[in-house]
Amino acid sequence: MKLLAVRRLLRIQRVVIRYRLDDLLFDLPLPWWLMALRYAMPWRWFPRKPLELSRGARLRMALQDLGPIFIKFGQLLSTRRDLLPADIADELMLLQDRVPPFDPQKAVALIEEQLGAKVGEVFSRFDVEPLASASVAQVHAAKLKSGEEVVVKVVRPGLKPVIAQDLAWLFLIARGAERVSADARLLHPVEVVGDYEKTIYDELDLLREAANASQLRRNFEGSEMMYVPQVYWDLCRPKVLVMERIYGIQVTDLATLADQRTDMKMLAERGVEIFFTQVFRDSFFHADMHPGNIFVSTVKPWSPQYIAIDCGIVGSLTPEDQDYLARNLFAFFKRDYRRVAQLHIDSGWVPAHTKLNEFEAAIRTVCEPIFEKPLKDISFGQVLMRLFQTARRFNMEVQPQLVLLQKTLLNIEGLGRQLYPDLDLWSTAQPFLERWMRDRVSPKSLLQNLHSQVEQVPHLAGMTRDLLERLSQPHLNDPAPSWKHSDSWALRLLGASLLAGGATLAAGAVSLSAPAAWPAWLMLAAGLYLVVRR
Known about the structure:
four-stranded mixed β-sheet
């Protein structure tokens, strides 16, 4: 693994040099000690020909060359037009579904290997040229023998070694950060990279994606807000996924959406409601909602419906995390900073000995300037990140299970502001959160909780009975003393010696009175016991 990691580092360095990414870095306003690093880079000691590529194109092509992990990072950045210049954001958008495809013949060979049959035997039509191509897989259009139009998704060959090399470096950096920095240890970087490792490898298993899509389809069955295509399970394999072909407008195609008179305000608000429905109602959310995976139906532009694809990455939260997030958001937007601080302490994210007043003051200092803006101008993702930055000063430990949620929230907010710049994220989310919290304490919910508790009674009774039995006979299940097995021969030898010694003493004490001979009889009894015992 170390050799692979070194080779990968050299590969990254070559890509940085080829696309002059160091020029992009040093164009930024950096501290002098960072600017001085450019003189330590040997490739900058000699004149270089200027590249006939824009800075956005150079960054996009570099990320493409570096593989899936870097491409996904570019996809996330492409949704944050509030953070990036327009020329860079436009280029990074091409990473969403226009990654250069791999050889179609390799795709056909892999499909036939996975299905165990020729494509002509399975499909009445199969388009060799890919319909779309992304970081992990590419998609081909096809038609089943039964007449349904479908898409066939196939995983790119040779991804695992590249991913393993990138992850090796990420783990190396994370472990080094934990060793040298107390602040880094609070962020649990090794655990975060471990979660990402699981996520990226799960995405390579298309059976898992098929299962996620089926679950999401059930959750939104009959919904006017979102539609999820049907999965054809008989034709799904670990590296091949066959699902219903959908027809819609890509969510970032604003001109076409405007031409069909789509209600953009409702579209943006429904995107927010879908996110909160997945997180709080279902605790099962699509965690890769970049624009390349989201389309808009053309059926009812006045009541627009999303179409979601690519469910390879999903997330979920525990009831405790759901409750914490909902209460925190309410307290934050009501400017109840004391409640925010108390929730952090109660949840265990901040040490119990943290001084409440100091923590409250720190949160107020960071957050109060945000509320000087109109509520519609507040960046939800920025608020969340600033809140975590403040808490980190008080030894807050980052919860890895929320990393996917933060990423998804940034995607949703960036997309919503593209569709409808005046989107008021909080006023859209507030009614849903209020309704969700009311439902949690409704009589129906309380009865359901009571029913689930009653179902646990037999199990709790069995546990109580086992506990009482262990308390009444604390040594019943203890392992036998080792001498009962390994030392039995030595004890029998000792018993034989005591028998011999006792017999000798008894023979010499015949003329003595009975009381004087008691040691001999004691030795005989002890020796007999040790010899005959099991």
